[in-house]
Amino acid sequence: MQNNSEKPLVRMYVMDNPFCNRNITCYLFILETRKEFCITLEEHAFGSDIVLCLFLSFGLIDTDDNHFILNDVMTNSTIVLKKNDSDLIVDKGFLFMKEKCFVYEDEYNYFEYEHFLDIKKEYKSKEKNRKRYLSKLSMDEIPLQLGDYYNQHLHVCLDKGFNYQIYFLIERYAAKIAEGKWEKTGNKLLLHDTFLECDFVYLIESDYLYSIYAPNDLNETDRYSLGIMYPFIMR
Questions:
Q1: Which residues of 157-186 are buried (b: 16+ CB within 10 A; e: fewer)?
Q2: Cα(201)–Cα(75) distance, rounded to whole angstroms?
Q3: Alpha helix (H) residue ranges in 9-155
Q4: I need a surface site. Which of 39, 116, 161, 187 has the fewest CB within 10 A?
């Protein structure tokens, strides 16, 4: 839990309908006082008050005269937003953010996900886990089984053409957040993302992937299990 003695000034921005014909909204929360941010994907179930909230990105903020630079804890990448009056235009971001903007909506003196997300604590936890996973990296070559790996709502799909997709499965809808080419280097899997201009990094285990620098929902395990298996193995 965050230290409540430092009350945040929180600005909320909205990207409506980032996925065509779906009732999914992307929210950006900027915690001015703490220089932190959080991006969520939220789906409002039709005819219900139930909201599915997925934490896409969070971390620390750098700024210059014209931009917010969002340093994402999970992917070790940066999202760059250009200031445009009160709104923010995406210069660099996830696939679905291309040529879109976050529209300023409101500001608050509290962060509604205060009790779920302690960004500094999450950063330390992620770093600790990364070091632990890397220290256990096998020196023996492990074959990579192609297919669809999943972690709760998040999926990583690898095909024989060296193409990948990362998507949230929301009510049977695949909300794609990344795509590109993959590469196996020893027992590491690199997914090249041209939109964020970075590589997502996973460790390969038998029928599992462990995320090192990659999108992941909050508080979910770093382990991705093999769901749908394709009849191809990369050695």
A1: bbeeeeebbbbbebeeeebbbbbbebebee
A2: 8
A3: 119-135
A4: 161
Rounded to 5, what percent of the chain is helix, strand, coil?
Answer: 10, 55, 35
Token pair recorded at residue 57:
């990105």
Given a contact cutoff of 8 angstroms between Cβ atoms, the answer to whether 102 and 114 are in contact is: no
- Rounded to whole angstroms, the Cα distance separating 101 from 97 reads 7
Q: What is the tally of helices (H) and strands (E) in the chain?
A: 1, 16
Amino acid at 9: L
* Closest of 69, 100, 106 to residue 86, by C-alpha: 106
Give, in order, the Cα–Cα distances in Å from 211 to each of 53, 127, 132, 135.
21, 12, 12, 14
pLDDT at 164 over 90: yes
- Cβ-contact 56, 215 below 8 angstroms: yes
Strands 144-151 vs 101-108: parallel, antiparallel or unpaired: unpaired
pTM exceeds 0.70: yes
**3 state SS of 106:** strand
Contact between residue 210 and residue 203 where contact means Cβ atoms under 8 Å apart: yes
Q: What is the pLDDT confidence band of residue 152, given thresholds at 50, 70 and 90?
A: confident
* 78 and 63 Cβ atoms separated by less than 8 Å: no
